[in-house]
Write a structure and sequence with these properties.
Chains A, B: Keywords: Hydrolase, Magnesium, Metal-binding. Chains A, B: Catalyzes the dephosphorylation of 2-6 carbon acid sugars in vitro. Chains A, B: Its cofactor is Mg(2+). Two copies of one chain form a homodimer. Chain A is α/β, with parallel strands linked by helices. Chain A folds into two domains: about 120 residues, 3-Layer(aba) Sandwich (Rossmann fold); about 110 residues, Rossmann fold (3-Layer(aba) Sandwich). Chain A is about 35% helix and about 20% strand. The first copy, chain A, is built from nine helices and 15 strands. In chain A, the strands form four sheets. In chain A, strands 5-4-1-13-14-15 form a six-stranded parallel β-sheet, sandwiched between helices. The first copy, chain A, has a five-stranded parallel β-sheet with strand order 7-6-8-9-12, sandwiched between helices. In chain A, strands 2-3 form a two-stranded antiparallel sheet. In chain A, strand 10 and strand 11 form a beta hairpin. The first copy, chain A, is globular, with a radius of gyration of 18 Å. The first copy, chain A, starts with 8 loop residues before the first strand and ends with a helix. The relative contact order of chain A is 0.16. The model of chain A has no long low-confidence stretch (mean pLDDT about 95). At the A-B interface, helix 5, strand 11 and helix 6 of A face helix 5, strand 11 and helix 6 of B.
Chain lengths: ~270, ~270
C-alpha cells in the first residue's frame, strides 16, 4: 500500500464516509483539516441530486467539517456539465427533480421546460414525483429526448427507514419508455472522470474514498482510479467477495487512511 | 386443428381482440352472438385494473358486443380473489390504484387502509400515482406486507401515444422495496386458473383467445391451456418465432376461429 504515499487528490464520498445522517463520523473533521494543511487536493463527490453544492457545504460545516461550495460536486452538476458539452444544439430540458437539479441546469445555461418539446429528460430524486411527470418524461423520451438519470440509488437510508431513491423513479421511466437512462452519478465512471477533469489532476495520483462498494468503489473501478473502502458506513468486509468492483484497499477509518498516506501505519 | 371443434369455453381478451380503443373489430359482435346461440361458455379476461366489470361491460355493449357484468373478469378481481382465499388472517390492504381496484377489494371483504399497518400492498394502474404512495407502499412491503401487482403491462397504447402502464409503477415499487411483486394478470397463470375455476369448466375444453403473445398467449401457456393468437391487434406473425410462449394456433380473425370450431374452415 505504499502507493498511497504518492496520492495527491482525494475524491471523497459523504454519507457513510464523513457523516451518517446528522451525525459526524468522529475523525472526519481532523482528516479534512489534515488534507488542507498538508496541501492535498480533495473534492466531495456525492450522488445527492436534490441539494445545491451550497446546501451540501452548509451541512458539512454544520457538522464541523471544512467545506466551500466549490469543494462539492453533485450528480446534478455532472448532468448539467454533460449537457453543456454534449453535441446536441438544443438545450431544452424537462427535469424531474428538486432544487439542486434545477439550479445546476439553470447555471449551466439549460432552458428548463415544463412541457415539451425537449432535447433532454433529466431525472433525479423528486419527492413530488407523479404519474403526470412520469407520463411527460416517457412521451418526451419516446419522441427522441435523451434520458439522463442523475443517479440510480435504489433507496435512501433515513431515520424513517429506506425511502425510495432516484433509482426507483428511473425504473418507472425506463419501463414506461422502454429506454435505458444514461447514468451520471456513481457507479458511472463519468462522475469520477468529470471530477478529475475539473480538478485538472492525474488519475494515477488520485483515489476514490467511500463506504459503498456498489457506488463509490465501482465508480473508481469503472473510471480506472484506485479506491479506498472505509468500513464506517454501508458496505461490510464480507460484502467484498461478491462485489462487482473490488476496492484497491480496505481500511477501518479515515485516520487509518491518513496513517497510510503519511507512512506511519505501523 | 380439429381439437378446436371440442372447445366449449373461450377466455377472450378485449383490446386488440374485440376492439381497438373505441373502434369495434368488425366481426366481434357476431362472434360473441354465435358463442351465445351455440351454447358455448365465455369470459372476458382483461388486465385492465382501473375499470369495474360493470364499466367494462358498458363499454362492450356501447360497441355492440353482448356483455353482462358477470361476463367480465379483471386483474383487480383476481387480486381480490387471491387475497380472499390466501392464508393470511389479516385482510388490510394498502391500494395503489383506481376505482376498479377499490371496488374489487371492497366487494371481496378487504379493509382498504390509507396508512399502515397493512397485510397487503396491491398495485395497479394509478394515474394519481405519487412519491408519497410509492413511499408508503415500499415501507409497508419492507415491514412485511405482501406485494401484489394486478398486472405488469409496461405501457398503455392510447391516442396520445404509449402512456405509462401498471408495470412502470410496479417497477418503481419493486426497485424501492427490493421485493418482486406477485403478479395477478396475464401472463401469470393465476388469472387463467381463476377464470377456469370460476366457470367450473375443464382446461382441456377451454382456449385462451387474444392478440398479444407476451400476455394472452403466454398466460395460456403458463396455465397449460391451449391458445389462439388472432392477428387483429398487437402481435404480428413474425413475432412468434422469438416469443417466450407460442400459440397453439394462429388465425387471422374471430370469423376464422368460428369456422375452425364449426369445422367449416375449407
Amino acid at each position: 500500500m505504499t502507493w498511497l504515499r504518492d496520492i495527491e487528490t482525494f475524491l471523497i464520498d459523504l454519507d457513510g464516509t464523513l457523516y451518517r445522517g446528522n451525525e459526524v463520523i468522529e475523525d472526519a473533521p481532523a482528516f479534512i483539516e489534515w488534507l488542507q494543511s498538508s496541501g492535498r487536493r480533495y473534492l466531495y463527490v456525492t450522488n445527492n441530486s436534490s441539494r445545491t453544492p451550497e446546501q451540501v457545504a452548509d451541512h458539512l460545516r454544520h457538522l464541523g467539517i471544512p467545506a466551500q461550495t466549490e469543494d462539492v460536486f453533485t450528480s446534478s452538476q455532472v448532468a448539467a456539465e454533460y449537457i453543456k458539452t454534449d453535441g446536441r444544439s438544443g438545450k431544452r430540458v424537462f427535469a424531474v427533480g428538486e432544487g439542486g437539479l434545477y439550479t445546476a441546469l439553470t447555471e449551466a445555461g439549460c432552458e428548463v421546460v415544463k412541457e415539451g418539446p425537449a432535447d433532454y429528460v433529466v431525472q433525479g430524486i423528486d419527492r413530488d414525483f407523479s404519474y403526470e411527470k412520469l407520463k411527460h418524461a416517457s412521451l418526451l423520451i419516446q419522441s427522441g429526448a435523451l434520458f439522463i438519470s442523475t443517479n440510480v440509488d435504489k433507496a435512501l437510508p433515513t431515520e424513517h427507514g429506506l425511502l425510495p431513491g432516484s433509482g426507483s423513479l428511473a425504473a418507472a421511466i425506463r419501463t414506461a419508455s422502454g429506454t435505458e437512462p444514461l447514468v451520471m452519478g456513481k457507479p458511472a465512471a463519468r462522475m469520477i472522470d468529470f471530477a478529475i477533469e475539473r480538478l485538472g489532476v492525474s488519475k494515477d495520483r488520485a483515489v476514490v474514498v467511500g463506504d459503498n462498494l456498489e457506488t463509490d468503489i465501482l465508480a473508481g473501478v469503472n473510471a480506472d482510479v484506485r479506491t479506498v473502502l472505509v468500513l464506517t458506513g454501508f458496505s461490510k468486509e464480507e460484502h467484498i467477495e461478491s462485489a462487482e468492483g473490488r476496492p484497491t484497499v480496505v481500511l477501518h477509518s479515515l485516520t487509518d487512511l491518513r496513517r497510510h498516506v503519511e507512512g506511519t501505519e505501523q
